[in-house]
Design a protein that fits this description.
407 residues, alpha/beta, Alpha-Beta Plaits, Rossmann fold, 3 domains, seven-stranded mixed beta sheet, four-stranded antiparallel beta sheet, 39% helix, amino-acid biosynthesis, magnesium
């Protein structure tokens, strides 16, 4: 909505220099003596340096400006005064959030991505750092862009620069409860369960080769699954216990699930692997939904067959849609995370599809790609900062200590 009566009697003030406790209060308190009305204010602190801007009106502008200059000089701050500013500058329609993610963000990536924003008629309105360890995450608030087209171009720049980047719609679409559904093998966990089972049969290398080809999209997944499961025939069912005990969670997996649940999100897993392994893992992490294939067992041994319909590429997408329906959530409010070709339909169906350390065919088609080894980095794509995560963890520790249950 536009302002029919824009103010042009305003003064813009921008202070820059070394930050110190109480600076904001000192400046605001000084303004009270000059009948100042605050129209807008913004502050950014980076590495101990501060930029603090006010848009104000004053009943005594001349005296007010003299006092502000005196205070700036006293505190060793630079001050830029801009009289006659208006307050009717609105953000351009078409809002988006661009998130950059890397060990350290290359200047070339930031330059190229910001160039794409400008090329598409947009403007970067705000910038904030979401995390600095173990990866750097930077978020750009952008206006005046078409999300789908900007996402396509940013994905191309990301692939060339080696810096992960995503583009998501801003505003209310980014807030509220969501459903997050992820693949299991090589996503939630570091392992491929079927290869771990095949190792007990002495056929790990053979099965691993078929798995790799299926994940690259070179083989039909259902056919490859039946071929690989056949290699397990005759294994005692107890090997499932051994495999469950040996599974390694992906770094950041617990943090991701824990944080999503604290936000009130629902988490699900869907796997081309086996429910005998996936369901206990989901229960341990507090994951609500789990869907995977079921191994046939006879006389205490694996038969080399699966029961029922195979959870393949299409089955994963159907599972996501079913989970969303159960939760009463539109598909726009879903996030899917996966690494292989059999995840592509699920990633395409979700409101945000994230390729996690994925095969090239998956990275090329996903909305966003994460190529750092920490699964909780996906949280930054949702606008959740490392400080938010750590603060929530500390609150849980404090609550446990107060209740006497320990951490």
């Amino acid at each position: 909505m536009t302002n029919d009566n824009p103010r042009t009697d305003l003064i813009g003030l921008t202070f820059q220099g070394t930050d110190f406790p109480g600076l904001f209060h000192e400046l605001a308190d000084a303004m009270t003596r000059f009948g100042v009305e605050i129209i807008d204010v913004g502050q950014a602190v980076l590495g101990g340096s501060i930029t603090l801007s006010f848009l104000v009106s004053s009943q005594h502008p001349e005296d007010f400006e003299v006092e502000m200059r005196r205070l700036a000089e006293l505190r060793g701050l630079s001050l830029t005064l801009t009289p006659g500013m208006a307050d009717d500058v609105h953000r351009l329609p078409g809002r988006a959030v661009v998130t950059l993610l890397a060990d350290t963000v290359p200047a070339e990536a930031l330059a190229e991505i910001s160039a794409e924003v400008v090329h598409h008629g947009g403007n970067i309105d705000r910038v904030r750092r979401l995390a600095r360890t173990p990866v750097t995450a930077i978020e750009l608030d952008v206006s005046g862009v078409e999300v789908v087209e900007l996402r396509r171009r940013v994905a191309e720049v990301s692939a060339e620069s080696g810096c992960d980047a995503s583009v998501a719609a801003a505003g209310l679409a980014r807030r509220g409860r969501r459903l997050v559904v992820m693949d299991v093998d090589s996503t939630l966990i570091q392992d491929e369960v079927i290869e771990m089972l095949a190792a007990h049969a002495g056929r790990e290398a053979e099965v691993a080769e078929v798995t790799e080809r299926a994940m690259r999209g070179e083989l039909d997944f259902a056919e490859s699954l039946h071929a690989r499961v056949a290699a397990l025939e005759g294994l005692p069912v107890e090997v499932l216990d051994d495999v469950r005990a040996a599974i390694r969670l992906t770094p950041g997996a617990r943090t991701l699930v824990r944080t999503l649940k604290r936000l009130g999100f629902t988490v699900g897993v869907v796997s081309g692997g086996f429910i005998e392994v996936v369901r206990p893992l989901a229960d341990e992490l507090g994951i609500t939904y789990a869907q995977a294939n079921t191994l046939e067992v006879a006389d205490g041994k694996l038969t080399g067959r699966v029961l029922g319909e195979v959870v393949d590429r299409e089955g994963k997408a159907r599972a996501l849609a079913h989970f969303a329906q159960n939760e009463g959530l539109p598909l726009e409010r879903t996030v899917a995370i996966g690494d292989g070709a059999n995840d592509l339909d699920m990633l395409a169906l979700a409101g945000l599809g994230v390729a996690f350390n994925a095969k090239p065919v998956v990275r090329a088609q996903a909305d966003a790609a994460v190529n750092v080894p920490y699964l909780d980095s996906v949280l930054f794509l949702l606008g959740i900062s490392r400080e938010d995560i750590e603060e929530a963890d500390n609150l849980d520790v404090d609550s446990a200590a107060m209740s006497g249950t320990g951490a």
